[in-house]
Structures are given as structure tokens and as C-alpha cells.
Amino acid sequence: MMLHKKNVLQEIVVGDNHLRIEIKEKKHFSAFHDINVPYCYYPKDFPTYKLQTNEQTEFGQRLRINKSETTYMPHDITDLTVDLIYETEHRFRIRIYDTIYKRYEVPLEVPVITKKTNQTDYDVKINSNPFSLLITRKSTGVTLFDSSVSPLIFADQFIKFSTRLSSPYVYGLGEHRQALLIDLTEKWKKLTFWSRDFPPVENTNLYGVHPFHINPEFNRDNSTNFHGQFFLNSNAMDIDLQPLPALTYTTIGGIIDLYIFTGPTIQNVIEQYWDIIGKPIMPPFWSLGFHLCRYGYNSIENMLATVKRMDDANFPYDVQWTDIDAMSSYLDFTYDEKNFHGLPDFVRNLQANGKHYVNIIDPGISSVQSPGSYLPYEEGLRKNIFMKKFNSTELILGKVWPGITAFPDFTNPNATDWWTNISSIFHDIVPFDGMWIDMNEPSSFIDGSSDGCTMNNLDNPPFIPNVLGGSLSSKTLCPSAQQYLSQHYNLHSKFTAHWTGDNRATFDDMYFSIPAILNFNMFGITHVGADICGFGLETTEELCTRWMQLGAFYPFMRNHNDLGQKDQDPGSFSYAAQQSMKQALLMRYSLVPFWYTRHYEAAMLSRTIIQPLFFEYPNDRNTYNIDQQFLIGRALLVSPNLKTETTSINAYIPSDVWYEFPSGIRVEKVGTFINLDAPLSKINVHVRGGFIIPMQIPGDNLIIGRGNPFTLLVVQSQWGNANGNLFWDDGDSIDSIETKTYNYLEFSLMNGTTLRIDALVTNYQDRPMRLELVKILGVNKTVTNVNINGKSYTNFLYNIFDQILLIYGLELDMLTQSIQTIQWTMTN
């Protein structure tokens, strides 16, 4: 932003340690070329708030702060209330708002705490003049929040406050295309938040808004704690980071509603954050399979040919999608009866063979069809659910694929009935299994509306964050558009879920998919993936093979590409490429019981499904910037080849017990980077000692394979123990967890000789859960005999060279007894 002072560029950010640098002319800073580095700092006499009253309350403290002078922003609010809410032992909340007038607040249902917790692991100190807050960890004294580094500014459309960071390492702050680690060592960085439909590129605000970050604390004893912050605000904002290290929030509306999560472990921080935003949903079982889509099938014949190619090549796959080319004139809730004739029967045939179908819906509803001819629009008008112009009953109209469109206001309670009804009517015609909601930022092909925007301060605020296009209305609706709850200015950055967007067929895009998926798991959107092989540009066989191998270990696995590009379904490539892709797919399908259980733990226990290495090895600083490898749960380490024309990778193997998957060969060199063979036919996966992985023999798709036998991969730790679990239900009911209509089993290896199966919940009795094979890794002595539930069993093999014990042909129903054991005896 600019101050009205000649020759002065006034981008206000955090000052240095003592706020000692006065405003300087731009020419004095000509050495700086990075636009993120500020040219000037706050002067010492900048207007600041002072503490007036401090009232003890049931929830903590309520403060009144005010100031006598205003700042450079219009409509400065001089009288503020500050609520300090001691919510839990590990969660502290700061709310700062206008004392006199009610302001917009994010309509997210969060825990309401009315009574202060009795015990905290944080201390709170209040500085009176100038007003600031200092939050520290009791056990170490480390700073968790310190607003003294910069004055608080609170104007009607400009709120800015800052905090010191505990270290220059930051994680989170999405959605942006960037590496996993934001390293502020000698680096400034600006991140902008305002939902935008734009192919992922760096230094640009993208589809989602997640103002949550994690900051490590490096203790003197070489241990590491973690804490997090969540700024609950949905207005457009910038977050500036600097090497002090410090962070500055700048938002153009709402209030300050900041949560501090004190961890102290990384998993604790995630749990504390998800307690506020909500846990992930449990996805349907079939959605864990392979999904296939493209924009540009163009006809039912081309899509049938794709399905036949996949089936003829014996690829497991579960879900067929269609894009907007399957619609009639791009109209939502229709299909093209000429080019996609017989689509309803095509879908029913898929379903009869165990597959599923997903169609696309864009929120833009055509408003220019003949009266009475287009039910979604007519019903929307009748229920009054479309967004309107500012202070008007007239609809605000944009332009999307079908032309001029109206946009549903999903904050309107009537919109739920409208959506349910028109979806049900379309489902009666085309019995889709899932729905893909696209362009719901909302995205428009024009800026603002078909009639432009107003000149008011919502459409032309005094400060605009560094959004793509330079305007809040760029390729979306006018911020002044009226919704049921508030103006679009406040509601644009919504509460939603999505995939990582319209990427491109490049090796760089493949790499950036990993930090994106890692970040979304932190943000609570765990069932996430990238467009495999790339959406835009034409892929290559090498890239698509590598990406299919990597994508087999995304939580959500979909191959998708753009109009005009060649086919990139696995069946369209050479036989050699198909075999490499198929091997990765079979690995994924064999691990589906493990995947499904991870989703259960995400929904119930706030566990991330995909996570960075430092989550499990927080005291190993070698892991802090690793984002070309990742963990599935705590047990599987995936190390893809992300470089073209290479046949090896340099991967980090943490100091632990690791075995190659699926061969079971132990890795000898750990705690260091090692070179691994990575020819085009292979993706490197390792399994960690101390875990038991439930697996299943794959079928042609997940529905066909549901009745197949299970296997257990038992991976001993250095102490000879291991643990695992398995959640299993019908895979489709939305209330199986609430009604306990599921099975839950726990597995434990004790003393390297006894495997115990505990069937703790056995309420889903649709069919037996047959255990066929147990594979135990790390058996370092010859096995002489095996007992199953106390009875001798002779179907076993011991590989002395690789130290692997196979117990096969079991046919053991894991549900018939609450406790079952498999024991083996070894030579001394």
C-alpha cells in the first residue's frame, strides 16, 4: 500500500527487534530487488493501542484497549475488546473485535468454551502500553506468540498484526504451490489468500484458503517441540514472513480470531487444529480404487473404447468419470443424448460389474434457457437461492461454460433442499455414484459480473492483498454480491474440499503434488490427490509411468487430462509401460485394508494419512525439508523417482528398522541418504519395523475383491514386537461408525514369536474375514514348528537368507473368536 507522502513506498510489515528504522525514501533501498522485501518500517511514534481495563471472566480475561490517534487507513477503529480464552491445557484463543459494532465472523461451528481450563502448558503476559501479548511455553520459556514486534492496526477494511516465530521453519499456509518447508533463513516471503480457480503456479493464490501453520521449537537439549496457529478469518489476506523470524497477518475484514495450539508433538498440533475445524469424513470404500477421467472423451464410443482397453489389459480400476463434454450444451444436471447416447445404461453396466461412475457439476447455473425448460434454474428462482447484486433483488450473473449463469448461494438454508431435489431427479436418469463439484470458488470467465461491479468499498477496498489479477473480482463474482449470511466479500473463501487442481504434464508438477498432498493432510483434507500424468500439456510414456507409480500411493488416485490431449489411460501405452503401471496398481490394491483403516483413524482419531518424515522423526533435522518422499500412516515410506531419464534416486532412510516392500529384504544402511535403484519399472517403497500391515489379495476392482482373503505383513522392530489394526465395514453406509456396524481388529506381535489377533468389534457379519497368509519379516533364527490357536500347523516356509517366515493356506476366519494366536518356535 502507499502512504500519501512524496517519494515514500510504504509497504507496512514487521519491524526489526527494536522498531528503530524510520521511514526512508525508496532510493535508499535500491539494493533490494525482491518484491517481498519491504522498503520501510514503522516509526517509533506510530499510533498504538493502550490497555484500559482488564476484567477477569469465566473464560479467562476480557480487555478493553483503545488509542487516541488513527493510522493511515480509513475508518480506523479506536475502541477494541480483547477476549483471552483459556480453552484447554493446550489451546489458547485470542479474539479482538470492535467494542461498539458487530462485525462479520466466519460461520464455522467451533467449540464454545465458557469456563477457563484449570491447567495450561502456556503462560500469558499482557503489556499495557503499547498493548501487546506474549504467550510462552511453561516448560521451556519458548515464545509461541509475541505481538510486540509490530503495532496492531484495526480498521474497518484493514487489520494487521504480527508475531515472532520460534524458529525460521514454517509448514502449512495453503493453498500455494511451494515446497513443504517454508525456510525463512535470510528470506522474505509473501503469501496471499483468496480462493482462485487457476492452474497451480508459484507465488499465486490458488483454490483453497488455509491460514494455519506449524512452527518447530528447537530446545537446548536438542529435542523439538511444535506449536501451531490458526487464523479463523475468511476475508482476503496476505501473510508476510521474514527472517527475524516473524509473521504478519493482513486481512481486509472480519475480526482477529486466532487459535494457538501448543502441541507439543506434531500429532498433538494436528489433533488440536482438527478439534476446531472438524475431522475428515470417512470416504466410501470404492473411492480408494483407481479413478479414470478426461475432458474430451467427446462420445460414448470413445469412453467405451477406454474401458475396453483397461479391461483387456487386466488393469484393476474402480471409477469412471466424465467431464463437461458429456453434458448437453454444458448444462448442469443434463447429459448429451446424441454424443453420449445410452449413458444411463453405460453407468448401470459399470455398476453391474462392480465399478462406479462420477459426473461433473459446475455451480454456474444457466440463466438464459427458454422459460420452463431448465428445472435447476427454475427451481432455484422459486426457492430464491441464487446470489444477488449489492442491495438488490436482482441476480448477479457471471459467465461459465453454458454462457450467462447464476450462482447458488450455499449459505442459504434453502439451497440444501434445492441441491438435493435436482440431484435426485438427475440421479433417477443417470444413476451416478459420486459427484465432482468444480469451479466453485466461484469461478467465472469474466471479472465481477455481466454488468460489472459497483464503485463501493466492497468492490474497491482501500487495500487489496496481492491477489492474482490485482482485483478481488478477477475471474469471480463482485465482492459486493449479496449472500444469505453476508456479502461475498466475506464469504468468498469457503469451507470445502478438493483435489490439487489443473496441473500440467511436467516432472516439476509431479514433484509439487507431494508437498501439496502433505499440506492438505495437515489441513484436514486427507482424501486428496493430483491429476496423475498431468491435466494440461501432452504427457509422455516415461512421465505417465512415473506418475502412475507415485499416484498409486496418493490417498485419492485419479488419472485425468485435458481436451485436445492424447489418451493417457494406462491401457493406451506400450506393454512395458503397462506392466510397470500395473505393478504399482496391484501394490495399491493389495494395501487397501491398510488404506481404509488409515481413513478410519483420520475420521476418528485425527491422524494424517500421508505425512512428512519429520512427523515421525521430529528430532532428526535431516527430515525437515524432505518433500520428495513421504510416509503412508506411520509404516510405509514411499520414495518415487521424480527426475526424467534417471534410473536411481538419492533417498533418506531414517534411523530405524526398514525392509523393502514387497520383497521383505532388510535395509542395512539407515540414518542417511542412500542411492536406490529406480528403473522405470520400479517405485521404491519400504516398510517400517514395529508395524503389522493388513492386506488383501486384489480383485479386478474393490467390490469384486472384497470377499478375497486377507494377508498380514508382520514387520518386527529391533525388539521383536509389532502392532497393527484393521477397520472393516460394508464400505458404503454413512452411519456404520455411529451404529457400530463394523469390525475392528487389532494385531500384536510379542517377543518375536507370538502373533495375537484381537477381534474387538464384530458387528459386520456379511461374510467371513478369512486370513490366508502371514508373512513375518526379521525372523533371525530357523523356525522349527508353528501352532495355530494351540494346534500344530505344518504349512509354513522359512527363508533363512532373507529371514522371512511364511505361514500360508490358513483359511482362518478372524471373526470366529475374540482372541486367536499364531505362534512359532525357533532354534536357540
Automatic annotation (TrEMBL):
Which Gene3D superfamilies does the record associate with it?
A: Glycosidases, glycosyl hydrolase (family 31), Golgi alpha-mannosidase II
Q: Which domain of life is it from?
A: Eukaryota
Which Pfam family, just one, is annotated for this protein? Glyco_hydro_31_2nd
Entry-linked CDD domains: GH31_MGAM_SI_GAA, GH31_N
Where are its TM segments located? Answer: none
GO BP term (any one): carbohydrate metabolic process
Entry's PROSITE patterns? Answer: GLYCOSYL_HYDROL_F31_1, GLYCOSYL_HYDROL_F31_2
The entry assigns this protein to a family as follows: Belongs to the glycosyl hydrolase 31 family.
Which protein, by its recorded name, is this? Uncharacterized protein
Record organism? Adineta steineri
